[in-house]
Design brief:
By secondary structure, this protein is mostly beta strands. The protein has one domain (27-106). The protein is 6% helix and 28% strand. The chain has one helix and five strands; from the N terminus they run ββαβββ. The protein has one helix at 47-53, and strands spanning 12-15, 22-25, 59-68, 73-82, 87-89. The chain has a three-stranded antiparallel sheet with strand order 3-4-5, with no helix packed on it. A two-stranded antiparallel sheet has the order 1-2. The longest helix is centred in the middle third of the chain and has 7 residues, at 47-53. It is globular, with a radius of gyration of 17 Å. The chain starts with 11 loop residues before the first strand and ends in a 22-residue tail after the last strand.
Length: 111
């Protein structure tokens, strides 16, 4: 579904049926204040970019809202885990490197 920032995100849900205006991020969920989700967080959220760059079915994303600079700047922090390689993914945009190996044409070891 399209977020308030204009990106497609599989975790955003908006219910606008018959005048309703219920919006939520199903990845972050209902967190207690001050870490709850607000629609303005979608502007800087990295999740839509990660989903566009890497559609690996084995990668599980976890997100949380972090405050910095005395609570004035709030951002979404994302961590990823690969269930196939059983490891934490350091760069979610790229993946773990084990699920989708490069084709042999790009192998530098071949003569």
């Amino acid at each position: 579904m399209r977020t308030p920032a204009g990106f497609e995100c599989a975790f955003f849900y908006g219910d606008y049926y018959r005048g309703r205006s219920r919006e939520e991020c199903r990845l972050i969920g209902n967190q207690p204040p001050p870490n709850q989700w607000k629609p303005n967080l979608c502007k800087s959220c990295p999740v839509p970019g990660i989903l566009r760059a890497n559609a690996c079915p084995h990668m599980t994303l976890q997100a949380r809202v972090e405050s910095s600079f005395l609570g004035l700047v709030r951002r979404v922090k994302v961590s990823a885990y690969c269930s196939l390689s059983q490891s934490v993914v350091n760069e979610p945009h790229v993946g773990c490197g084990m699920c989708h190996p490069l084709p042999p044409e790009f192998d530098l070891k071949r003569p």
